[in-house]
Amino acid sequence: MLTLNGKHIYLRALEPEDLDFIYTIENDESIWELSSTQTPYSRYLIKEYLENAHKDIYEVKQLRLLIANDNHESIGLIDLFDCDFKNKRAGIGILIYSKPSRQKGFGDEALKLLMSYAKSHLDLHQLFCNISEDNNVSLNLFENNGFKKIGLKKDWNFINGSFKNEYLLQRIF
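Structure tokens predicted for Diamine N-acetyltransferase:
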């Protein structure tokens, strides 16, 4: 089982007991904008997803890890997605779901842990992320970790009746 340990948090592989936490996140309409979700997920689908979460990153082109604090409480998720091993790149996304855990450095620590893993264990050359133009917290997090804005996608996402721009950021190791 994959576990990456930091000073205040750790990242670990998903387990069957994470069903309720993931169900809550995936069905929270207030954050659907982050994942382009448009419909709720059933417990059955999430259970099926968790049963397949052990599959190899090279097969499924994705790695989702749970972020837990020192008290072993689930506080968020971090993902590598669209893994392209031929071109040595992947997308990265993070969510600190627990509101009391936000803006305490946990996202920064999780991002650093997964970036290090992506470089040293997966031999990736670059990571990219997509962040809404008005998400200053996430923009600061990624820019403070060496990501550069390389493009602005105009009217990229249709959210609550209006279009929003989205930045594409890239980090080359």
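The longest strand covers residues 148-159.
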